[in-house]
Amino acid sequence: MDVSTTHRDGAVIVAVRGDIDLVTASTFSREVFAALDGDPALLVIDLTAVDFLASIGLGTLVDARTTAPPEVRVVVVADGPATSRPIRITGVDDAVPLYATVADALRAAQG
Fold first, then answer.
1. Is the pTM of this model over 0.70?
2. CA dist., res. 73 & res. 44, Å (int)
3. Phi, psi of 74 (to 5 degrees)
4. Averaged pLDDT score across all residues of the chain
5. DSSP code at position 22
6. Which of 31, 36, 37 is nearest to 5 (CA)?
7. Which CATH number fits the domain 2-104, given the four candidates 3.20.20.70, 3.40.50.300, 3.40.50.170, 3.30.750.24?
């Protein structure tokens, strides 16, 4: 798994590539919470290049939303059976808004 963090339009974007499973979950979680430490207005977790998303990764998404300060928006970008499907099936999208693209997430945050 590879994780990169970038800043764009006032948002912090954590982009993940590869699998999020028991082996890689701690790295994923560490990167997400490091991004939250900077108190961004918007945290975008981009999972569009993720091939496998285990339940431990879903837990990190919910934990990010519940531990972020109320003024910080946390959203997820995922579009595909390996990511958006488990997010929807488990109801994680009720806690963390789900978008198909980073552009969609940034647009929604601005409007």
1. yes
2. 8
3. -120, 125
4. 96
5. T
6. 31
7. 3.30.750.24
Residues in the chain: 111
DSSP H or E segment with residue 66: helix 55-67
Name the burial class of residue 91, with classes exposed (0-12), middle (13-18) and buried (19+) by CB atoms within 10 angstroms of its CB.
Answer: exposed
* Rounded-to-integer distance, Cα 22 and Cα 29, Å: 11
Q: Tell me the pairing of strands 98-99 and 73-77.
A: parallel
Distance separating alpha carbons of residues 111 and 61, to the nearest angstrom: 23
State both tokens at 86.
């488990």
CB 105, CB 99: distance < 8 Å: yes
- Please name the helix (run of DSSP H) or strand (run of DSSP E) that holds residue 105, with its range, or none: helix 102-110
Q: What are the DSSP calls for 26-44, one per residue?
A: HHHHHHHHHHHHT--SEEE
pLDDT digits 0-9 by tens, 35-61: 999 889 999 999 999 999 999 999 999
